[in-house]
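Repro:
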Amino acid sequence: MVRIDALNTIFCECFIVTVYSAVMKIIILLLTLLTLVSPQALALDIGSKSPNLFGRTLDGKLFRLSDKTGPVVLNFFWVECKPCVKEMPELASLGLKHPKIEMISVHVEDEERSTVQDFINRLPAHPKTIVTASPAVKDAFDIRGLPHTVVINKGKVELVVEGYTEKSFSALKRHMSTM
């Protein structure tokens, strides 16, 4: 009897150590993953290399941000976003004042291209290039709300504007006038 109890005790201790070790490995792995996907890790920092962006223009052509060589203003929007509706015509006007800076509006929600086209057709003005992209692009560009605007020059992030207010749009205009 004593021998069986000793074996049971040894077995239980080994089992507990094994389970404890496995649990600790899982905890360390989860903490590592949380660190990698923390907001600080995903933040789009000024001066950092811009993520690439793939999508389709409204006429179905492939769009790759990496193909652009000059300065670009990316404006991320959604057809249901009220501030986006107000901002689009102002972006179009700003684009006309700065023809060397390409204005690109990117729709980032799951919608049919025809729905996005109908939205664009209802606006009094809009940037020339409209792209539809996967909602996954929101992670790459650290988008927490819409509209969201990123100025890119020579492949580097120069300015990030979250939301649409008179103050934020003025910051965009000031920055573009220095480019």
